[in-house]
């Protein structure tokens, strides 16, 4: 089984062009070709014709049991009232996590404005994914995206689970420390490359990932994700295949950790929403 915990259906090349159904098709095709069973789709920090809203993605994926939605939050326009809709989506099982984009927007994760969001994450027990490291756009301000800032919220909100995206690249050692120190912090390996890995860069990144595990980051804390369509799914799977770590650790990284953290039904029932029993709780 393979779960890609980090994909997007944004139309990066032409933000004025409607793309939702076309890009969902592309994602599904890419998953089939690479035998990826389940993917989390992360919605953007902005809404434009090429970047559909969380509601639009929830509705479009409602009958697609292999796709789950993580709701992107825009720091600039965020108001606690926005959480009403997201809370409903979480309760019905159609949103599985939240995603913040520091760096793309100028704010630190510990900004007080976000307190209601962390309280919701704790209440509903859904992970908060936090962009970290380099920004795809040169307009981003990377000081906000340093993985050390995740330590602040990890300590202040011990009941919330955090995922540092992109292993904080290039601040991988800093990410390593934050994941190692905090039992509620995980990391995903997505988005390390634009397109395909080149041999030398692949070896360089593998060494860093192995170093991270050697340093003491538990393999239960690392999640497989590609960042498709920015990175190639195929190239990412080759990267994982070539990674010299025990098969049992690979299994954790490829799907077990993500399934547990985001409470995904991987038993093959095809049920997307929470069971009736869950909803009655
Ligand atoms: Zn991403």
**CATH architecture assignment:** Alpha-Beta Barrel
Query: Strand share of the residues?
Result: 5-15%
Question: What average pLDDT do the residues reach?
Answer: 92
Number of strands: 8
The end-to-end distance, rounded to whole angstroms, is 30 Å
Shape: globular
Per DSSP, the total helix count is: 10
* SS content category: alpha/beta
Q: Give the full name of the CATH homologous superfamily.
A: Metal-dependent hydrolases
What's the gyration radius in Å?
A: 17 Å
Total number of distinct structural domains? 1
Query: What low-confidence regions span 5 or more consecutive residues with pLDDT below 50?
Result: 275-281
Q: What's the story with the biggest beta sheet?
A: 8 strands, parallel
CATH C-level: Alpha Beta
Q: What ligand species are in this complex?
A: zinc ion
CATH topology: TIM Barrel
How do the strands line up in the largest sheet? 1-2-3-4-5-6-7-8
SSE run: EHEHEHEHEHEHEHEHHH
The helix fraction, in percent, is: 25-40%
């Amino acid at each position: 089984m393979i779960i890609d915990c980090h994909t997007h259906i944004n139309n990066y090349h032409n933000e004025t062009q409607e793309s939702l159904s076309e890009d969902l098709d592309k994602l599904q095709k890419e998953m089939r070709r690479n035998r990826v069973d389940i993917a989390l789709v992360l919605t953007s920090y902005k809404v434009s014709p090429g970047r559909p809203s969380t509601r639009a993605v929830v509705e479009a994926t409602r009958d697609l049991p292999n796709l789950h939605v993580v709701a992107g939050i825009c720091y600039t326009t965020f108001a606690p009232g926005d959480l009403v809709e997201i809370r409903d989506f979480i309760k019905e099982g159609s949103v599985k996590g939240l995603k913040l984009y520091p760096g793309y927007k100028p704010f630190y994760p510990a900004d007080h404005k976000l307190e209601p969001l962390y309280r919701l994450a704790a209440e509903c027990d859904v992970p908060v994914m936090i962009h970290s490291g380099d920004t795809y756009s040169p307009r981003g301000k990377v000081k906000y995206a340093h993985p050390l800032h995740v330590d602040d919220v990890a300590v202040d909100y011990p009941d919330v689970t955090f995922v540092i995206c992109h292993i904080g690249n290039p601040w991988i050692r800093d990410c390593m420390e934050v994941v190692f120190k905090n039992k509620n912090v995980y990391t995903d390996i997505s988005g390390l490359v634009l397109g395909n890995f080149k041999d030398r860069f692949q070896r360089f990144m593998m060494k860093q990932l192995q170093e991270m595990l050697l340093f003491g980051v538990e393999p239960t804390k690392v999640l497989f994700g590609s960042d498709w369509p920015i990175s190639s799914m195929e190239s990412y799977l080759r990267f994982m295949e070539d990674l010299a770590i025990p098969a049992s650790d690979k299994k954790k990284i490829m799907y077990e950790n993500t399934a547990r953290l985001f409470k995904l039904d991987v038993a093959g029932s095809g049920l997307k929403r929470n069971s009736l029993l869950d909803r009655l709780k």
